[in-house]
Amino acid sequence: MPPESRDRRVRRSRAALMEAAVRLVSQRGTTAIPVTDLTEAADVSRKLLYLHFGDRDTLLVAAAVDLVTRELLPRIGSAPEETRLQVLEMARHFAGRRAFYRAMLTGACAFTMTTALNDLFGSFNRKAAHELFPDIDPDTAQDLAAFVAGGTGAIVNHWLIDGHDPLDPEELTDRLLRLSAAFALTRPADEGPTR
């Protein structure tokens, strides 16, 4: 079989497994989905799941990262450079996929998923750190990005897990922007001319 055909089959199999993972976790409200159910829903063998992902939890986390990468990041990227619209797109995405993310955040792979999503959003936070604090050194920018991602993740996670139905993306957006404004207040003022 030519390598390109094999590559297409690999991509199709991986995509089918990740789509099945999102669908079944969303429908059942749990990450405790038997591997057999996942592979049957994707119409692939158990061996293929283990070959591509190693185990069920790795598949589930990969499915969450893929979902964010395919659905959310393009929406944020196509939103005008207005921060409010980008944050609102994020809140709408998570609210629209609440059943999936709620199960992922309360299941066995919650820590791994949260870490993967924090890493994924880290580049946005590093950029914001450099905009707020232009003279910040790279290590501190990295630490600040991780700090902001972790704190933002905690707020979003709490909202997804315990928020009242229906979730209000506008309310979450306002909360996150108020926090962002508080960070902006900590920005050192430019020094005036020396006397």
Q: What does this protein structure show overall?
A:
The chain is mainly alpha-helical. It has helices at residues 3-28, 35-42, 46-53, 56-78, 83-96, 98-106, 110-132, 138-162, 169-185. The protein has a single domain, classed as Tetracycline Repressor, domain 2, CATH 1.10.357. The radius of gyration is 20 Å and the shape is globular.
Defining traits:
195 residues, mainly alpha, Tetracycline Repressor, domain 2, disordered C terminus
Helix content: over 70%
CATH fold annotation: Tetracycline Repressor, domain 2
Round the mean pLDDT to the nearest integer and report it.
89
**What is the CATH homology-level superfamily?**
Tetracycline Repressor, domain 2
Using the alpha-carbon principal axes, give the shape.
globular
Number of domains: 1
**Number of separate helices:** 9
Q: Count the strands?
A: 0
**Strand-residue proportion:** under 5%
What is the H/E order?
HHHHHHHHH
Corresponding CATH architecture: Orthogonal Bundle
Taking pLDDT < 50 over at least 5 consecutive residues as the criterion, the unreliable ranges are 191-195
Distance between the termini: 77 Å
Largest beta-sheet details: none
Q: Structural class, judged by helices and strands? A: mainly alpha
CATH hierarchy class name: Mainly Alpha
Question: What is the radius of gyration computed over CA atoms, rounded to a whole number of angstroms?
Answer: 20 Å
